[in-house]
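INTERNAL AUDIT FORM
Audit reference: QA-55
Scope: verify that the stored structure record matches its stored sequence.
Auditor: D.O.
Record contents follow.
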Amino acid sequence: MTATLPAQLLYIAAQFAHNDPYRQILCGISIKRVEDTMTILSTNGHHAFRVSFEVNELYHMDEENLVLDAKAFKKRIAKARYAVIRDNVTEFKDIKGSMLTINPVEHIAGTYPNMDAPIWPNEYKNNPGAPVGFNAQYLGTFLNEVTRFGVNGTAKMEINTPTAPMQYSATIEAFSDAFEVYYLLMPAQIRK
């Protein structure tokens, strides 16, 4: 098994994975390849991160599905442009292809949750009709990553109803590559 993926996107995805070892599959980052598109996804069940991009000479993967333990990517490796994953090892490389460091990485067996519609809506009406509650710490995690890696520091919000997930999106720059990233935040109940 070999995969070469954007290191910054793996770092960002790791921030949204679960930390509870009893929810093992949610402690991972899901990477899927469908034809010429790869998708990186992570969730803790309350919020989720997703980015899709085209397979190319630099970013590719042999397998169709892979779940990697997020612990290997929680710490940002400065100057790492991409991560080369071979079996149970990740090599972080800079823009010139020079190796910066090597980290062990565990593969997690199991089926990652399906985050497609209806969990991740296909469209948004942007008319909630009532106040919307959310966990500020969860939203802060996404906005911190947008502040750190975003092209212009702007995040766009989309919503349907006060009880439906809210979607935020932003453009993240990873060296000379730009990626449109999406963040799904489950609403918190507002008690009267």
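Auditor finding: record pair retrieved intact. The chain is about 10% helix and 35% strand.
Action required: none
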